[in-house]
Amino acid sequence: MQRPLDIGWLRIFEAVGRLGSLTRAANELGLSQPAVTYQIKRVEDQLGVSLLHRSQGGSRLTDAGEILFEAVKTSVENIDKAARDTRRTTQDHAVRIFTDFGFAAFWLMPRVTDFRRLHPEAEVHIIASQGLDDAMARETDAAMLFGAADDFPDTAQLLIPERVVPVCTPGFLERYGPFDDPAKFARAPLLHLEVAGKSRWLTWESWLADHGITRKPAQGDLGLNTYGFVIQAALAEQGVALGWRGLVDHHLEQGSLVAVGREVARADRGYWVVPGASVSNTTTTLLDWLINET
């Protein structure tokens, strides 16, 4: 009699099948790529079939993989829904918010701390990922995501419109500045936020293009995969970063970072509050309080 499969691999396989990439699945799940590869190989060995066509361009499901993926996808969705329903029946005071790492660290966490001083009975969980994970957003009570209005349902509410200004430390400015001409940024070390696929955020390439300057990442630049790392690199005087107002305001007020270029605003883009399908009283209280904070 064959031993039944361990179900721990379900979410890993679902992510690989959905994203078409072992690397992207590993990043989304907070695992290493070898760990993801190992779990997929274990399932293949137990089933005696190949589930993926592996190539440099990604990982495509085989026919057997497609059959298994459809079943796994449904199972993961059902498990997540059951978990949400169970949580809501037992934890009305618990709120789960999904967002990206930079927004969680620089904007959300300080305000959640203030909220919990006023509402000590509230239990707040912040789940962060650098990618826009629709499944994770659905699993939580609310999401705070960056994008354009068309990216979100009609129930979404704009929290912080996108306003971006180049920032660096006073010491870096003294060595490399002044940056009174946008062309001077093209000759300075720049700090890039690297994301999978097309970036929803303003990039240095697009910021410079708005000023008639063509420049791609170059030698001396630094690419980092979370916004927290970008700001830490700026504070370490590794280059100039794009600073999102609302996220870097504390550093600008303290003087640890200074604005060194023209602010660019895109009114149709920014951080949006996306309520979940079923919102508890505690979630409503928290979201209303956060919106008022802006």
TrEMBL record:
Coiled coil feature spans: none
Transmembrane intervals: none
Gene Ontology molecular functions: DNA binding; DNA-binding transcription factor activity
InterPro entries (alphabetical): LysR-type_TF_proteobact-type (IPR058163), LysR_HTH_N (IPR000847), LysR_subst-bd (IPR005119), TF_choline_sulphate-util (IPR017786), WH-like_DNA-bd_sf (IPR036388), WH_DNA-bd_sf (IPR036390)
NCBIfam families per the UniProt record, alphabetical: chol_sulf_TF
Taxon lineage: Bacteria, Pseudomonadati, Pseudomonadota, Alphaproteobacteria, Rhodospirillales
The entry's keywords: DNA-binding, Transcription, Transcription regulation
Similarity-based family: Belongs to the LysR transcriptional regulatory family.
Signal peptide residue numbers: none
Name of one Pfam family that matches: HTH_1
Domain HTH lysR-type span(s) in chain numbering: 5-62
Protein name in the entry: LysR family transcriptional regulator
Superkingdom assignment: Bacteria
Species in which this protein is naturally found: Thalassospira tepidiphila MCCC 1A03514
